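Figure S7 source data.
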Amino acid sequence: MSILVTGGAGYIGSHTCLKLIEAGHEVVLLDNFCNSHRSVLAGLEAIVSKAPVDEAPAKKAPVDKAGAGKTGMGKALVLVEGDVRDAGLLGQVFAAHSIEAVIHFAALKAVGESVQRPLDYYDNNLSGSLVLLKAMREAGVKTLVFSSSATVYGNPTQVPIREDAPLEATNPYGHSKLMVEGILENVCQADAAWRVARLRYFNPIGAHESGLIGENPQGVPSNLVPYIARVAAGKLAKLQVYGGDYPTRDGTGVRDYVHVMDLAEGHLKALEYLHAHGGLLTLNLGGGRGYSVLEVLRMFEQVSASPVAFEVVPRRPGDVAECWADTGAALKILGWKAQRNLATMCLDTWRWQKQQA
Ligand code: NAD
Ligand code: WQD
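Tokens for the predicted WQD complex:
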């Protein structure tokens, strides 16, 4: 299949592009690089060609009329540098490539920032999705995998969280995801030809085992594991542990961490399912168990053999005590279950972190 991957240069997108290419699909990667780096392409090329990263083909490539740049991977990966809200560009992309399905990662994702800049979040996440859906309808492409989030469960009333748990938005980011989930439901109700998966990720961490691609956010990370990795690497002084008085086993927040390569494999399985069955699919993708902040920190210290300094500070507003997924539906429907444990997640993050300048 030829698959359009919006936000494909980002953290989860880049690992999913790799899995798609390895499975023999052709990928058209659309990204505006607002939260990613062009260097991810060299990493992808090096992994696919199994060449050292500095021997990978050139990063910059000529761009054709549809905005598509050659990447050194031929038809396996075509880069389109642009914005998912650009309807004209999307029309060109669908006209130039025989796209059969879309995976829509492109979005802004920082909860705190969404409270500060709600309009930017609705513009990017909501308008971006609407423009994309309309372009897909125009092009007759009706298969979509959408990146949703555990944030749609708001303050969960019980754990583990099943897909039929109450939904709630506690911030503009979460609201944007819930709204797009609702739009997708309406679209599927209106036209049975649509095949849509809404995948609710829990806490993705880790990196490809090569250490050549990983999570590389612009600026100081707000998520736990990238922050810990930078403390272990000596780039940040100490971790602030947000809250030591939660009703959890050690007082710190408990979350469901899932390896990004497991997530990438989940996307492949979701696409295969949609291809075979159609309909609207809504699934949690998580590891299915919870780890506390201190458990993650200790594991990171162990695998990196580096101390991670920390101090316990007051709770971060909006955080919940614990959150982890019931992943039974993903297992039953897709045959998907996360395979990589916390040690692997931390080790792979560390291998990637060590290669950063
Ligand atoms: P990311 O920021 O690394 O990747 C998003 C990519 O989209 C970036 O490369 C960015 O440059 C691009 N992008 C953003 N807006 C764009 C636009 N308007 N046009 C084109 N490109 C644009 O984030 P990620 O962690 O890979 O997340 C991917 C998706 O998964 C997002 O939709 C996010 O909301 C969702 N999600 C992420 C997490 C997480 O913790 N990482 C958890 C749940 C859901
Ligand atoms: C994990 C734990 C913090 C940073 C967020 C979004 C969610 C989803 C995943 C996109 C919590 C603690 C963190 C730090 C800390 N993203 N922590 N010090 O908050 O579970 O989820 O990312 O959809 O929607 O809300 O992830 O990595 O920020 O925090 O103590 O410097 O680590 O309190 O217990 P979170 P996180």
